[in-house]
Design a protein that fits this description.
With 507 residues, this protein is of the alpha/beta class. Among the domains are: 170 residues, Rossmann fold; 129 residues, GMP Synthetase, Chain A, domain 3, CATH 3.30.300. It contains 18 helices and 19 strands. The strands form three sheets. A twelve-stranded mixed beta sheet has the order 6-3-7-8-9-10-11-16-15-14-12-13, sandwiched between helices. A four-stranded mixed beta sheet has the order 2-1-5-4, with helices on both faces. Strands 17-18-19 form a three-stranded mixed beta sheet, sandwiched between helices. Strand 4 and strand 5 form a beta hairpin. Helix 14 crosses helix 15. The longest helix has 22 residues. The radius of gyration is 23 Å and the shape is globular. It starts with a helix and ends in a 5-residue tail after the last helix.
Length: 507
Amino acid sequence: MNSTKLISKFFIPRLKELALYNTAAQSIQEQVLARLLKEANHTEWGRKYDYNSINSYEEFKKRVPVQTYDDVKPYVERIRSGEQNLLWPSKIEWFAKSSGTTNDKSKFLPVSREALKDIHYRGGQDCVALYSQINPESRFFSGKGLILGGSHSPNLNSKHGLVGDLSAILIQNINPLFNLIRVPSKEIALMSEWESKIERIAQETINKNVTNLSGVPSWFLVLIKRVLEITGKQTLEEVWPNLEVFFHGGVSFAPYREQYKQLIQTSKMHYVETYNASEGFFGVQNDLSDPSMLLMIDYGIFYEFIPLDQLHQENPEIYCLADVELNRNYAMVISTSCGLWRYMIGDTVKFTSKNPYKFVITGRTKHFINAFGEELIIDNAEKGLAKACAATGAQICEYSAAPVFMDKNAKCRHQWLIEFAVMPDSVDKFADILDSTLKELNSDYEAKRYKDIALQPLEVIVARKSLFIDWLKMKGKLGGQHKVPRLSNTRENIEEMILLNNNESLA
């Protein structure tokens, strides 16, 4: 008897609810907003903006200003000091520590028990429900799920809670029954020392029947390679013959796809992208032939969107879900059952469908290069790199890019620091193809590159093996949800990386 088929029957009611995304999205979102406002109307924030008298989205938009973390931070610090009922009515005991690398000052985002249940865990359950629909022959529940997450610790300077990576918070608070179907043990999963943790996870799981993986692709590669080293196997299916799906998120999968194809060669392997951030669970791929993700609209999250080209205007247009346009870049704004109100999370998205609402992540509002008016975003970079890799046989481990504002010859250009898993047949050819593809994809970049007047051809610097891991280690950000900044508008990060690349003694 296939236990997965039996268990999947319990997903049928939820799949019927998800089918309403096609026809009732606006109504669903209106209900979410009304519920959030009602639950928070007696908080300090709710009283400040008189939530009790807000009867429409337009009134909510008019009355409550858009927030950044700096706006919310005073409230967060008070909650971390023990005050309650400020942003959300239930007791806040957990804080998700942001995973950014460009700012040494971490963000601490409140995580309520309602958000754990109605956003994060619900997102995980919906991933499995939708996957069971995608793959009716799945044997998902016949083995264990391997989750690679971060760690947590006591609330810094406070006795009133815990802080940590969101993944660690989820593992810590998960229903004990789920521990029966996941590995590694909680003790190992929550270890803070990354290198020891990888070793312990590898040793604990090599003899388990692992059917599914969940985590960040870049960090999972480190674990997979260690598992293969220990076992002496060439591919992961030789270790875990029933492996069938990887739920991945946190960074774009595109740079790692070819490496995964080599390490996992079985035809029954599936890859499902998710969008699960510290602020909430927002999307999951529901069609393996379509890279877009389904926007999860009936959680404790109300969505708004600012057109990216208006982001830095004094009074930009802000749209609810019903008013977005296809194929336009938006900065995402959320109101959630964590007590984040009209909060700009820093990610940019583009909708590919409205029935249901499906989207792709196009970048970060702070991760771009616009030093010369070229407006280069992550989406451009990923597509350019993919084309350059395909043409030169290269595979990429990690990369980071930044502008060179002016060298000794008064020349400006972009500088790309790239660690290759497989070197291109020619670095110069790789750089040429990347440069020409960026011109095809981005008219602003093309204009600045015209006759090399404003921008010279881009430069590719080959990074040594493990450079980016060493840099993250140096910054105290190794493992978990931490990410390499892909595009930066300043040279702060890339200068550190280049110095480390040239002087291994700093590692």
